[in-house]
Amino acid sequence: MSVEIFQGQLGQAFSSPDPAVQQAANNANQYTEMFKQGQLSKDEYMQAMADIATSARINQSMNDMSNLETLNSAITGLINLASLVG
Amino acid sequence: MKKLLLVISIMLSGCAVVDAYLMTHYDPNEYKLVTDIRAEAQIYKSQCDDFATSKTNAIKLANNTNLFVLYSEHIPHNDQLISASQDLHAIAKGLVDQYSESDKVSTGFCKIKFASIESNADIIQKTIAGRPR
Question: How would DSSP label each residue in B30-92?
Answer without folding.
Answer: HHHHHHHHHHHHHHHGGGTT-HHHHHHHHHHHHHHHHHHHHHHTTSTT-HHHHHHHHHHHHHH
